[in-house]
Design brief:
Keywords: Membrane, Transmembrane, Transmembrane helix. The chain is mainly alpha-helical. It is built from 3 helices and 2 strands.
Length: about 60
């Protein structure tokens, strides 16, 4: 794996640590709902899916 791709994965990891920290998650702990789901669930699963997509793109470029 190229050093550049490793650096991107490390930056992604630090970003996820920040996005999944308690103060940030508690910002979305409200009574509002989207399609019947609480905002906190939408936020957690949205960030999770976003991280999977970004990781896939980084690893896809690694194969080239």
């Amino acid at each position: 794996m190229k050093k550049r791709h490793e650096q991107k994965l490390i930056i992604l990891s630090f970003g996820l640590i920040i996005l999944f920290s308690a103060p940030i998650i508690l910002l979305f702990n409200s009574e509002k709902e989207v399609f019947g789901f609480p905002m906190i669930y939408i936020y957690i699963f949205g960030v999770w899916i976003f991280s999977i997509v970004i990781s896939f793109v980084i690893f896809k470029k690694y194969d080239e």
